[in-house]
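Checklist before submission:
- one chain only
- standard amino acids only
- sequence pasted in full

Submission:
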Amino acid sequence: MRLTRFTPFQQFNQSLTLKIFSICFVSTHVPLLALVVYLVTGFRSEATPVLVLVLAATLIGTAFCLACVWAFIRPLHQIAGVVETYRSTGVVKSVRSKRKDEVGIVTNGISILIKELDATLAQLRRQATTDVLTGLGNRRWLKDIGALEIARAARERTPISVVVFDLDHFKSINDQFGHDVGDQVLVMAGATIQHNLRPYDIAARIGGEEFCLVLPRTDIDVAVSIANRLRMQFESKAVGPLPAKRVTASFGVYRGDPASETLKSMLMAADRELYAAKNGGRNAVRSAVALSIRDTKMRA
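Returned file contents:
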Protein backbone atom coordinates (compact mmCIF):
# COMPACT_ATOMS: atom_id res chain seq x y z
CA MET A 1 0.00 0.00 0.00
CA ARG A 2 1.48 3.31 -1.11
CA LEU A 3 1.24 6.19 1.35
CA THR A 4 0.63 9.69 0.04
CA ARG A 5 3.12 12.24 1.32
CA PHE A 6 2.10 15.85 1.62
CA THR A 7 4.50 18.76 1.40
CA PRO A 8 4.49 21.28 4.27
CA PHE A 9 2.62 23.73 2.03
CA GLN A 10 -0.08 21.15 1.24
CA GLN A 11 -0.44 20.32 4.93
CA PHE A 12 -0.76 24.01 5.73
CA ASN A 13 -3.31 24.52 2.92
CA GLN A 14 -5.46 21.63 4.13
CA SER A 15 -5.39 22.42 7.86
CA LEU A 16 -7.41 25.24 9.37
CA THR A 17 -5.70 24.59 12.71
CA LEU A 18 -2.24 25.22 11.25
CA LYS A 19 -3.47 28.38 9.56
CA ILE A 20 -4.97 29.85 12.73
CA PHE A 21 -1.99 28.87 14.89
CA SER A 22 0.42 30.40 12.36
CA ILE A 23 -1.54 33.63 12.08
CA CYS A 24 -1.84 33.94 15.86
CA PHE A 25 1.87 33.27 16.30
CA VAL A 26 2.86 35.88 13.73
CA SER A 27 0.36 38.45 14.99
CA THR A 28 1.42 38.19 18.62
CA HIS A 29 5.10 38.54 17.67
CA VAL A 30 4.69 41.54 15.35
CA PRO A 31 5.49 44.04 18.18
CA LEU A 32 8.60 42.08 19.16
CA LEU A 33 9.78 41.78 15.56
CA ALA A 34 9.18 45.47 14.97
CA LEU A 35 11.15 46.35 18.09
CA VAL A 36 14.07 44.11 17.11
CA VAL A 37 14.22 45.60 13.63
CA TYR A 38 13.98 49.08 15.09
CA LEU A 39 16.89 48.51 17.44
CA VAL A 40 19.06 46.60 14.96
CA THR A 41 18.81 49.36 12.39
CA GLY A 42 20.37 51.78 14.83
CA PHE A 43 17.44 54.00 15.80
CA ARG A 44 17.44 55.66 19.22
CA SER A 45 16.16 53.50 22.05
CA GLU A 46 14.29 56.28 23.82
CA ALA A 47 11.08 55.36 25.60
CA THR A 48 8.61 57.41 23.61
CA PRO A 49 9.51 56.21 20.08
CA VAL A 50 9.78 52.62 21.31
CA LEU A 51 6.37 52.82 22.99
CA VAL A 52 4.76 54.32 19.89
CA LEU A 53 6.37 51.65 17.73
CA VAL A 54 5.19 48.81 19.97
CA LEU A 55 1.62 50.18 20.13
CA ALA A 56 1.46 50.64 16.37
CA ALA A 57 2.86 47.17 15.78
CA THR A 58 0.35 45.72 18.25
CA LEU A 59 -2.56 47.37 16.41
CA ILE A 60 -1.23 46.19 13.06
CA GLY A 61 -0.77 42.64 14.34
CA THR A 62 -4.26 42.61 15.88
CA ALA A 63 -5.88 43.92 12.69
CA PHE A 64 -3.95 41.39 10.61
CA CYS A 65 -5.03 38.54 12.91
CA LEU A 66 -8.72 39.56 12.87
CA ALA A 67 -8.74 39.99 9.09
CA CYS A 68 -7.18 36.57 8.54
CA VAL A 69 -9.52 34.83 10.98
CA TRP A 70 -12.53 36.49 9.30
CA ALA A 71 -11.28 35.33 5.90
CA PHE A 72 -10.93 31.80 7.28
CA ILE A 73 -14.43 31.59 8.80
CA ARG A 74 -16.36 33.68 6.25
CA PRO A 75 -17.58 30.59 4.31
CA LEU A 76 -19.22 29.37 7.54
CA HIS A 77 -21.12 32.65 7.72
CA GLN A 78 -22.26 32.15 4.13
CA ILE A 79 -23.33 28.55 4.65
CA ALA A 80 -25.25 29.58 7.79
CA GLY A 81 -27.16 32.04 5.60
CA VAL A 82 -27.87 29.30 3.08
CA VAL A 83 -29.23 27.01 5.80
CA GLU A 84 -31.40 29.76 7.28
CA THR A 85 -32.74 30.74 3.85
CA TYR A 86 -33.65 27.15 3.06
CA ARG A 87 -35.37 26.68 6.41
CA SER A 88 -37.42 29.87 6.09
CA THR A 89 -38.21 30.00 2.35
CA GLY A 90 -37.29 26.61 0.90
CA VAL A 91 -35.00 28.29 -1.64
CA VAL A 92 -31.74 26.45 -2.31
CA LYS A 93 -28.72 28.73 -2.74
CA SER A 94 -25.45 27.31 -3.97
CA VAL A 95 -22.20 28.04 -2.12
CA ARG A 96 -18.93 26.65 -3.40
CA SER A 97 -15.55 26.94 -1.70
CA LYS A 98 -12.23 26.17 -3.39
CA ARG A 99 -10.46 25.75 -0.08
CA LYS A 100 -9.12 22.34 0.94
CA ASP A 101 -9.22 22.82 4.72
CA GLU A 102 -11.94 21.89 7.22
CA VAL A 103 -14.02 25.00 6.51
CA GLY A 104 -14.01 24.28 2.77
CA ILE A 105 -14.98 20.66 3.38
CA VAL A 106 -17.83 21.66 5.71
CA THR A 107 -19.05 24.42 3.36
CA ASN A 108 -19.13 22.23 0.27
CA GLY A 109 -20.51 19.26 2.21
CA ILE A 110 -23.43 21.20 3.70
CA SER A 111 -24.19 22.84 0.34
CA ILE A 112 -24.36 19.42 -1.33
CA LEU A 113 -26.41 17.96 1.52
CA ILE A 114 -28.98 20.76 1.25
CA LYS A 115 -29.36 20.13 -2.49
CA GLU A 116 -29.74 16.39 -1.91
CA LEU A 117 -32.22 16.99 0.92
CA ASP A 118 -34.30 19.30 -1.27
CA ALA A 119 -34.33 16.75 -4.11
CA THR A 120 -35.32 13.97 -1.69
CA LEU A 121 -38.11 16.04 -0.16
CA ALA A 122 -39.40 16.95 -3.63
CA GLN A 123 -39.43 13.27 -4.57
CA LEU A 124 -41.26 12.37 -1.37
CA ARG A 125 -43.82 15.10 -2.01
CA ARG A 126 -44.41 13.75 -5.50
CA GLN A 127 -44.76 10.22 -4.16
CA ALA A 128 -47.18 11.41 -1.48
CA THR A 129 -49.42 13.19 -3.99
CA THR A 130 -49.05 11.10 -7.17
CA ASP A 131 -50.49 7.74 -8.12
CA VAL A 132 -47.47 5.69 -9.16
CA LEU A 133 -49.27 3.52 -11.70
CA THR A 134 -51.14 6.17 -13.72
CA GLY A 135 -49.06 9.27 -13.05
CA LEU A 136 -52.19 11.17 -12.01
CA GLY A 137 -52.72 12.85 -8.66
CA ASN A 138 -54.07 10.83 -5.75
CA ARG A 139 -57.01 11.48 -3.44
CA ARG A 140 -54.95 13.53 -0.97
CA TRP A 141 -53.66 15.78 -3.72
CA LEU A 142 -57.15 16.15 -5.21
CA LYS A 143 -58.54 17.23 -1.85
CA ASP A 144 -56.01 20.04 -1.53
CA ILE A 145 -55.90 21.30 -5.11
CA GLY A 146 -59.63 20.85 -5.67
CA ALA A 147 -60.48 22.98 -2.65
CA LEU A 148 -58.20 25.72 -3.96
CA GLU A 149 -59.86 25.66 -7.39
CA ILE A 150 -63.33 25.84 -5.90
CA ALA A 151 -62.30 28.80 -3.74
CA ARG A 152 -60.87 30.50 -6.82
CA ALA A 153 -64.04 29.85 -8.82
CA ALA A 154 -66.12 31.37 -6.01
CA ARG A 155 -63.83 34.39 -5.81
CA GLU A 156 -63.77 34.96 -9.59
CA ARG A 157 -67.40 33.89 -10.11
CA THR A 158 -66.50 31.37 -12.80
CA PRO A 159 -68.12 27.98 -13.42
CA ILE A 160 -66.53 24.75 -12.24
CA SER A 161 -67.51 21.17 -13.01
CA VAL A 162 -66.59 17.82 -11.49
CA VAL A 163 -66.48 14.49 -13.31
CA VAL A 164 -66.36 11.13 -11.53
CA PHE A 165 -65.98 7.96 -13.59
CA ASP A 166 -64.83 4.38 -13.30
CA LEU A 167 -63.96 1.58 -15.67
CA ASP A 168 -66.81 -0.82 -16.34
CA HIS A 169 -66.47 -4.42 -15.12
CA PHE A 170 -62.84 -3.86 -14.17
CA LYS A 171 -62.89 -6.69 -11.64
CA SER A 172 -63.80 -9.17 -14.37
CA ILE A 173 -60.76 -8.00 -16.37
CA ASN A 174 -58.51 -8.78 -13.41
CA ASP A 175 -60.23 -12.12 -12.78
CA GLN A 176 -60.19 -13.25 -16.41
CA PHE A 177 -56.89 -11.85 -17.70
CA GLY A 178 -54.85 -11.24 -14.55
CA HIS A 179 -53.74 -8.19 -12.64
CA ASP A 180 -50.93 -7.42 -15.08
CA VAL A 181 -53.50 -6.75 -17.79
CA GLY A 182 -55.57 -4.78 -15.29
CA ASP A 183 -52.53 -2.62 -14.56
CA GLN A 184 -52.03 -2.08 -18.29
CA VAL A 185 -55.61 -0.88 -18.53
CA LEU A 186 -55.06 1.60 -15.69
CA VAL A 187 -51.84 2.87 -17.30
CA MET A 188 -53.71 3.34 -20.58
CA ALA A 189 -56.49 5.18 -18.75
CA GLY A 190 -54.02 7.53 -17.09
CA ALA A 191 -52.25 8.30 -20.37
CA THR A 192 -55.56 8.84 -22.18
CA ILE A 193 -56.80 11.21 -19.50
CA GLN A 194 -53.62 13.28 -19.56
CA HIS A 195 -53.64 13.43 -23.37
CA ASN A 196 -57.22 14.66 -23.60
CA LEU A 197 -57.36 17.26 -20.85
CA ARG A 198 -56.49 20.95 -20.97
CA PRO A 199 -53.38 22.23 -19.15
CA TYR A 200 -55.41 23.67 -16.25
CA ASP A 201 -57.70 20.66 -15.74
CA ILE A 202 -57.14 18.46 -12.69
CA ALA A 203 -57.16 14.67 -12.85
CA ALA A 204 -56.74 12.14 -10.05
CA ARG A 205 -57.14 8.45 -9.41
CA ILE A 206 -59.29 8.22 -6.30
CA GLY A 207 -59.88 4.47 -6.10
CA GLY A 208 -58.97 1.16 -7.68
CA GLU A 209 -60.59 1.89 -11.05
CA GLU A 210 -62.24 5.20 -10.14
CA PHE A 211 -61.07 8.57 -11.40
CA CYS A 212 -62.03 12.18 -10.89
CA LEU A 213 -61.69 15.37 -12.92
CA VAL A 214 -62.02 18.91 -11.64
CA LEU A 215 -62.62 21.25 -14.57
CA PRO A 216 -62.12 24.95 -13.74
CA ARG A 217 -63.92 27.60 -15.82
CA THR A 218 -66.05 24.85 -17.36
CA ASP A 219 -69.84 24.82 -17.66
CA ILE A 220 -71.93 21.68 -17.91
CA ASP A 221 -72.03 21.42 -21.71
CA VAL A 222 -68.25 21.52 -22.09
CA ALA A 223 -67.80 19.13 -19.16
CA VAL A 224 -70.17 16.60 -20.75
CA SER A 225 -68.30 16.97 -24.04
CA ILE A 226 -64.99 16.22 -22.31
CA ALA A 227 -66.51 13.19 -20.57
CA ASN A 228 -67.90 11.85 -23.84
CA ARG A 229 -64.56 12.34 -25.57
CA LEU A 230 -62.85 10.31 -22.87
CA ARG A 231 -65.55 7.65 -23.01
CA MET A 232 -65.06 7.19 -26.76
CA GLN A 233 -61.28 7.17 -26.37
CA PHE A 234 -61.46 4.37 -23.80
CA GLU A 235 -63.81 2.39 -25.98
CA SER A 236 -61.44 2.59 -28.95
CA LYS A 237 -58.40 1.26 -27.08
CA ALA A 238 -57.15 -2.32 -27.39
CA VAL A 239 -54.97 -3.24 -24.41
CA GLY A 240 -52.98 -6.48 -24.46
CA PRO A 241 -55.36 -9.38 -25.04
CA LEU A 242 -58.38 -7.10 -24.68
CA PRO A 243 -60.07 -6.15 -27.94
CA ALA A 244 -61.37 -2.68 -28.73
CA LYS A 245 -64.65 -1.78 -26.98
CA ARG A 246 -63.78 -4.13 -24.11
CA VAL A 247 -62.58 -1.21 -21.96
CA THR A 248 -65.44 1.18 -21.31
CA ALA A 249 -66.26 3.65 -18.56
CA SER A 250 -69.29 5.26 -16.96
CA PHE A 251 -69.29 8.97 -16.14
CA GLY A 252 -71.08 11.25 -13.72
CA VAL A 253 -70.79 15.00 -14.43
CA TYR A 254 -71.83 17.74 -12.05
CA ARG A 255 -71.71 21.49 -12.50
CA GLY A 256 -71.40 22.76 -8.95
CA ASP A 257 -72.01 26.08 -7.29
CA PRO A 258 -68.62 27.15 -5.85
CA ALA A 259 -70.26 29.87 -3.77
CA SER A 260 -72.18 27.40 -1.63
CA GLU A 261 -70.70 23.93 -2.18
CA THR A 262 -67.53 22.11 -1.19
CA LEU A 263 -65.48 19.61 -3.14
CA LYS A 264 -66.97 16.81 -1.04
CA SER A 265 -70.56 17.77 -1.87
CA MET A 266 -69.72 18.14 -5.56
CA LEU A 267 -68.09 14.71 -5.63
CA MET A 268 -71.14 13.19 -3.96
CA ALA A 269 -73.42 14.79 -6.56
CA ALA A 270 -71.20 13.59 -9.44
CA ASP A 271 -71.11 10.14 -7.83
CA ARG A 272 -74.90 9.97 -7.90
CA GLU A 273 -74.84 10.66 -11.63
CA LEU A 274 -72.17 7.98 -12.05
CA TYR A 275 -74.40 5.37 -10.44
CA ALA A 276 -77.27 6.50 -12.66
CA ALA A 277 -75.02 5.90 -15.69
CA LYS A 278 -74.14 2.43 -14.37
CA ASN A 279 -77.75 1.54 -13.69
CA GLY A 280 -78.67 2.77 -17.16
CA GLY A 281 -76.43 0.23 -18.87
CA ARG A 282 -72.86 1.62 -18.38
CA ASN A 283 -70.56 3.18 -21.00
CA ALA A 284 -72.59 6.36 -20.66
CA VAL A 285 -72.45 9.92 -19.37
CA ARG A 286 -75.01 11.34 -16.95
CA SER A 287 -74.96 14.96 -15.81
CA ALA A 288 -76.61 17.38 -13.40
CA VAL A 289 -76.41 21.06 -12.49
CA ALA A 290 -76.57 22.50 -8.98
CA LEU A 291 -80.12 23.42 -8.00
CA SER A 292 -79.13 26.99 -7.10
CA ILE A 293 -77.71 27.49 -10.61
CA ARG A 294 -80.76 25.99 -12.29
CA ASP A 295 -83.02 28.32 -10.32
CA THR A 296 -80.89 31.32 -11.27
CA LYS A 297 -81.05 30.41 -14.98
CA MET A 298 -84.80 29.88 -14.81
CA ARG A 299 -85.33 33.30 -13.23
CA ALA A 300 -83.09 34.87 -15.85
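Reviewer check: Residues 47-89 form the longest helix (43 residues).
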